From TrEMBL:
<keyword id="KW-0812">Transmembrane</keyword>
<feature type="transmembrane region" description="Helical">
    <location>
        <begin position="117"/>
        <end position="145"/>
    </location>
</feature>
<comment type="function">
    <text>Claudins function as major constituents of the tight junction complexes that regulate the permeability of epithelia.</text>
</comment>
<feature type="transmembrane region" description="Helical">
    <location>
        <begin position="165"/>
        <end position="188"/>
    </location>
</feature>
<feature type="transmembrane region" description="Helical">
    <location>
        <begin position="81"/>
        <end position="105"/>
    </location>
</feature>
<dbReference type="InterPro" id="IPR017974">
    <property type="entry name" value="Claudin_CS"/>
</dbReference>
<dbReference type="InterPro" id="IPR004031">
    <property type="entry name" value="PMP22/EMP/MP20/Claudin"/>
</dbReference>
<keyword id="KW-0472">Membrane</keyword>
<dbReference type="GO" id="GO:0005886">
    <property type="term" value="C:plasma membrane"/>
</dbReference>
<feature type="transmembrane region" description="Helical">
    <location>
        <begin position="5"/>
        <end position="24"/>
    </location>
</feature>
<protein>
    <recommendedName>
        <fullName>Claudin</fullName>
    </recommendedName>
</protein>
<keyword id="KW-1133">Transmembrane helix</keyword>
<keyword id="KW-0796">Tight junction</keyword>
<dbReference type="GO" id="GO:0005923">
    <property type="term" value="C:bicellular tight junction"/>
</dbReference>
<keyword id="KW-1003">Cell membrane</keyword>
<dbReference type="InterPro" id="IPR006187">
    <property type="entry name" value="Claudin"/>
</dbReference>
<keyword id="KW-0965">Cell junction</keyword>
């Protein structure tokens, strides 16, 4: 019962992380225009993502444009595009493998030991996808913070952390947490299985000792 609850909890947390990874990959709010110094009245907001950049002006609807070329992106965003795609694929694979290995799933000709290995594979994939997602999110955030406090960078070119980065940290944490749940569940099952399969020690009871003693005395008296 407890094992089934843990598996369902891990699957739900992993599903949230997977959906969050997909959302972060497509969101344009990776780098947001910073309004500092004496810019009190804001006429324009700039969003920069992995696939497009958007401009929203006052009293005008937002306009987005897809990047004409990958070379138009900065090096960190170029690498982030590939890493986020890899993280999305890994999280989807981990989610599907976890569904296959769920305890409540009945597969023909499949043993519990094989399902344990499947659950362990899903946990490793979840942790790997979370780690892959953390790399671009932390890299972009570090560059944004470095440029923000760099006095040589023009004020108009400074950016702030967008909502996609915060969502990326949450999604990566969910993926790693789901992987940890599945891995711990698999380790606990292995310990329980090994304990259950260990041969119990046989100790003769007092009645058996007494019965053997009576038989021995009876045999000796009969011999005499």
């Amino acid at each position: 019962m407890v094992g089934g609850v843990l598996q369902i909890a891990g699957l739900l947390v992993g599903g949230i992380g997977m959906i969050g990874t997909f959302a972060v990959t497509g969101m344009p709010q990776w780098r947001v225009s910073a309004f500092i110094e004496n810019n009190i009245i804001v006429f324009e907001t700039i969003w920069e993502g992995l696939w497009m950049h958007c401009i929203r002006q006052a009293n005008i609807r937002m306009q987005c444009k897809v990047y004409d070329s990958v070379l138009a992106l900065s090096p960190d965003l170029q690498a982030s595009r590939g890493l986020m795609c890899a993280g999305s694929v890994l999280s989807f694979l981990a989610f599907m493998v976890a569904i296959i290995g769920m305890k409540c799933t009945r597969c023909a000709q499949s043993s519990w030991q094989a399902k344990g290995y499947i659950i362990l594979t899903a946990g490793i994939l979840f942790i790997l996808s979370g780690a892959v997602e953390l790399i671009p999110v932390c890299w972009v955030a570090n560059n944004i913070i470095s440029d923000f406090y760099n006095p040589t960078v023009n004020v108009a070119q400074k950016r702030e952390l967008g909502e996609a980065l915060y969502l990326g940290w949450v999604a990566a944490f969910c993926l790693i947490a789901a992987g940890a749940i599945f891995c711990c569940f698999c380790c606990c099952c292995e310990k329980t299985r090994s304990y259950g399969y260990s041969a119990p020690t046989y100790y003769p009871t007092h009645s058996q000792h007494l019965h053997r003693k009576t038989e021995s005395s009876y045999s000796k008296s009969q011999y005499v």
